[in-house]
């Protein structure tokens, strides 16, 4: 990853301030376009489904409340689902940016590096042993599992002289996920009740989620996102390498620690709410980088907008292609994201590849 | 007797080790490696002990003397039912599947020159699982249809992964593994989707198959598996004798007069067929193919692919795991795949850490 050299304040640059202002304006415009696109996807997500509702009906219901059947469908079912999709999409995308920056690894993703599996196994334990079925109870387990798995994968991947290369982290993540997957099958096999709860949660779906869940996870997601926005400058410094970052006056240890906390909050809460969803965290930062380049101060906001577009877009596709049933969003994102992963593996010159 | 030593240009390791027996006129010679023979002997001993334990203990204990009597054709009817109809097919299936997985893993790891180049990692297992679950849940096929679907799915996936990792005229080891991870993720999500579409009962049956289980395996599974191994094992072992030279690189091997492309093709086909036969018989049992060859290396300290020791090691691992899986929780027969998954996965983590620390992989 070549470093964002425009870490200097945008207005105080010594070279061609006019050109820089042009770039800034273009990126702001891009951000506005992405925002508009997100709004469109949100409206579509409310309108499309087993019972299609025209856009005028959507706006009427949103402004006038639960007066009609459409109003009930929208306010009780589609709106919570859409809001959750926006929150989770943004969280996973930002978590992807953070992981890719902290590990300097273009292949980092909460799914590939085993963080989702960590959260999943902790949730299964919570359902099994303490019979929790309420998200407020098991969200803490999800944090614990996500945090423990990310630390474990990082420690495993960074052993030896050449440190945590992309390939090693991906392999360590796969190995840890495999162990955790076996533990999950062990528990679910012994216990049909847990298996029945888990097989739906385990694909990653936005459907059938209560409005309450949103309020329970939103504080954690907002906190994680704010942390990420706040540390985007330090992430730029970190991209130059630990030594250069230190020389520039950045506290590398603090950045990594805060980053890990943010990743744990974002992945843990998102996974607890909707189940493990892979590849959003991998794909979105790469899409955003096409526009923004490597500057994290732009990359994070773009990901906040593009993540929900991808996740809600996938959710809408899943609702449309299997009428009258639907395909869970985690399956669609795997089909969108895995080809991106394979293309990256084929094209990029990754160390040791 | 002499001790030949040939150094590999890449690693500096000794490629050939052992002693050579020749007749005085030098018309006939055999290379043998005492330590490997010793390891094979000890492993066979372990297998025999596990076999004796699995046949004689359980909910209905049969003393060892009566087990032998029954196996020799005598004994009481009840003993015959317990030992020959219930316990023996499960034991033999475990032995055969373990041996097939161990040999397949040894060949793949040697061909890819990578300790991770096992059917588990390169996507074969995910493809087989998706194929089988599709058959179980959508087409409601019987045992034979499920096995065929698993083999087809596995082969198709392995081919797609291989083709996608082909860039600039060659397949780099790590790219193969990463592409396998990507394709595997896609297929796993398809499997998960199929599981949500099924009834709880069907889904649980499919789940048990997915983990890999020897529960309820009868002679009708063992016989075709045994026939497959009778055909595949000699071919694999004979073709695999040159793997030690292939590990030195294609150019060196060609220079030494080994038909590189033909040998590789034969070995890829037989190793895939071994993995496919094992998967078709009992589902994708995790990590045996990965762990068996790796465990053999430090024990035998011999060169080459060590197909035979890896096969015996695989048989020992699987029968031991199955013995444990049947007894670790009283009243429940766990699928053996859970056991190999937890233990083997932890071993894989350790292996990665160890290899990276010593800078070998």
From TrEMBL, chain A:
It is found in: Cell membrane. This is Iron-dicitrate ABC transporter (Permease). The chain crosses the membrane at residues 28-48, 82-99, 111-132, 138-157, 169-190, 213-238, 258-279, 299-317, 329-346. Its main location: membrane. The gene is yfmD. GO terms for molecular function: transmembrane transporter activity. It comes from Nostocoides japonicum T1-X7. It holds the Pfam family FecCD. InterPro entries: ABC_BtuC-like (IPR037294), ABC_transptr_permease_BtuC (IPR000522).
UniProtKB/TrEMBL annotation, chain B:
One of its GO terms (molecular function) is transmembrane transporter activity. It comes from the Bacteria. It holds the Pfam family FecCD. Signal peptide: none annotated. It is a multi-pass membrane protein. The keyword Transferase does not apply. The chain crosses the membrane at residues 36-55, 91-109, 121-139, 145-164, 176-195, 221-244, 265-292, 304-324, 336-353. One of its GO terms (biological process) is siderophore-iron import into cell. One of its GO terms (cellular component) is plasma membrane. InterPro entries: ABC_BtuC-like, ABC_transptr_permease_BtuC. Keywords: Cell membrane, Membrane, Transmembrane, Transmembrane helix, Transport. PANTHER family: FERRIC ENTEROBACTIN TRANSPORT SYSTEM PERMEASE PROTEIN, FERRIC ENTEROBACTIN TRANSPORT SYSTEM PERMEASE PROTEIN FEPG. Belongs to the binding-protein-dependent transport system permease family. FecCD subfamily. This is Iron-enterobactin transporter subunit membrane component of ABC superfamily. It comes from Nostocoides japonicum T1-X7. The gene is fepG.
